[in-house]
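Hi everyone,

Forwarding the result from last night's run.
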Amino acid sequence: MKRATTSLFASLAIAAASTALAQDSFKVGLDEATNGSFSIDPELPADGMVPAGTVITVSTKPDKGYTLDAGYYSVPGRWGAMYYESMTPTFEVVVDQEKNIGASFIKKSEVDHIDVTHNITYAQPGKKPLNYDVFSPKKAKNLPVIVIIHGGGWTTNNEDVMRGLARELTRDSKFVVASIDYRWAGKADGDATLTTMYSIIEDCYGAIAHIMEHAADYGGDPTRIGVTGDSAGGHLSASISLMIERIGDGGFGEQDGVFEFEPTYLPKGKTADQVREEMLAAIRAAAPSYGVFAGEWLKADAENPEATAEWDRAIQPLHAIPNASDRAIPQYLTLGTEDPLISDEMCTQFMDALVAKGQRVQYVQIGGAGHAFFDWKPDAQTKSVFDQYGRYYAAEMRAFFESILY
């Protein structure tokens, strides 16, 4: 696999090292690794308390027949441990709060069929570089492209959390897969100005514009694209597929009744209008997993007192479905029966709206599954859930895309 030498992980480490630390030391723990091992320098003291600002070098080593999935450190997050991952065998961790350090290994057969390029930057409208990863089957040439948009409540995770799904979607070497990141909502990235929901949609369109521009470099066909995503990414992938007609440079809410998305990245020499026409022809299907399609969660600009219900409807997929006679855009929906966040009613409402517009739609309920079963993280529990549900339904999703993009 190809590995980028720089990453968001490294950027975070550098930023942390420059931060003034009020506490003298922090607890550092080491997670047990399976199918490989890792070592650290310097070693931890007996009580695990490490002076603030210490830089720990972590070196990983897979067992025979295995390869590095990711090295990482974790901190408490909104939904349990939040992982910051490195795809390089050796990486550094700056001690600036309580952290756990570990490494994840997978069978080489999981990735032997692909080349992986990490952290391709497509734009940087704020503090965070906006990246995507590409998973290309060996000797890929002119293959359709599936774009994955991650979830995490629009405020957590990055493209790394979708790598398990990306690997599965490339399994039969019929697709190039790109997993994209975007700005987090509000000030979650540390930006001085708020990131709105429509700005996030513009990021996603910008990522796809960059992917289309460079598709041939990855062995992809820029004229055959499918989009998928889970949870917040379910909302975003549905939006991306259904709102293409509103790509433009007219601004979002700047004029009465005008709600246009200008991609965060535009290829040199191309206008938003030209990109819109290319995407209308290229983006042909979507597979939103346990997504949000309307309702109170979807605010276009939550902090803007001038933002009306019309603004909110403009970023809600339920209200953006074209007639199939104008543009067919098939949808494949999935939901776990034990999902504590997304209800059957929400998905059924979206399905019924698609049917009313003549669109092809398949809605699959997955018995026993909870939320986020397409996620991939270094911990054993997440991997187990992915093995139980994610792999099988990734194959079903792959068949859906194949039926349209081939």
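The radius of gyration is 21 Å.

Cheers,
N.
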